[in-house]
Amino acid sequence: MNMTGAQSMVRCLEEEDVSHIFGYPGATICPFYEALYHSESIQHILVRQEQSAAHMASGYARITGKAGVCVVTSGPGATNLITGIATAYMDSIPLVAITGQVQSYLLGRDIFQEVDITGAVSPFIKHTYLIKKAEDIPRIFKEAFHIATTGRPGPVLIDVPIDMQEAEIDFSYPEEVNIRGYKPTINGNLKQLKKVVKTIAAAERPLICVGGGAFCAKAQEQVRQLCEETKIPMVTTMMGLGVLPTSHPLNIGMIGSFGHKTANMALSQTDLLILVGARVGDRAITAPEKISSQSKTIHIDIDPAEIGKNVNPTVPLVGDLRAVLESLLAEHPISNCSHWSEYLQQEAAAEKATMPDPRPDTIQPKRLMAEIGKQITADACVVADVGQNQIWAAKYLSMRQGRFLTTGGLGTMDMLCLLLLG
After folding, report:
1. Last residue of a domain, one of 338, 354, 370
2. pLDDT for 298-327, tens place per residue?
3. Domain housing 319
4. Do residue 110 and residue 159 come from a single domain?
5. What distance in Å separates the CA atoms of residue 198 and residue 187, rounded to the nearest whole number?
6. Cα dist. 166→22, 84, 261, 278, 394 in Å?
């Protein structure tokens, strides 16, 4: 079927079941917008500044689990996406950013609104494409969505010169993706799984630490089963809040410099730390070398680059978190940590029940967060902007079946409303 490159871009989005995109029109992306006008299945959300498009697409992706899509023009339009792309990269959010670009035969001449956006974002993006042949558009879009949503999720950028959008092509959308060199590991190594089971059985004070990777892999149920079947207590990073309800007896709390006292105490006393989809940066574990020296560590992650980055693992295990935990549960791991678990549960319950008395005629922020937690619905989504308010909400606002959305990597401020709108 013959159509323009711009029309094929819209068809590609329709083939990927994209229902919402966030963007701001401009000169070099106009052919795409003209083609988008005729789409009956894609709703375009017009923003007032391009950075908003990236953050709204990020919020959409965090809740739906699908890739968020943002579309902008070249030059300053593209550079305004950079903070949103970096935020998505640090938080492992699937994002497809589409940027217009000047004519391909003028690239490198520093003409009006020309920016090397693929080079500009290269340090903090999963992959980038510059369309050089219009007939490559279907393949590149198929690959972009595949890369963004598989393995460790992340942002992918497609830079499309305006003459590629105007060119005629014979459209055919690929059914499969086969990218040389990109084969994410899904199932964990069986020998390593056996080691995990043995290491858990030998531990007296095991502790599960869950990060945002549990949500990326949709593995909340598997985490709950692992905790309940083994009776191993669990702590979370800020990005892992909500994996288990705050009131769950095995949920000891959030670790880190702004975390719960009992959770940090458990971290300092454990003899086996099981890291589940967590990179445990400096705000989560301030002295990783102490953890490595005092306890064994099992680290489960989809991204091999994260394993050993901050804490040296005794048993590394690479794979999709949901698939790995299902395989681990099938091995029926046994833990003998009842005294340790009961002790931490008692300490955590006492800490959570303690609330400082407010000063007269003042609103105590900690108590306010606790009261909000009591009032919200069980499936409420809590969105916290960066700052002290984020710390109060993370520590004192109880989660049940909903999500706690924030940026734990880049720490981007003023994106609260944009995540909500997305």
Report:
1. 354
2. 999 999 999 988 888 999 999 999 999 999
3. 190-354
4. yes
5. 19
6. 22, 28, 60, 44, 49
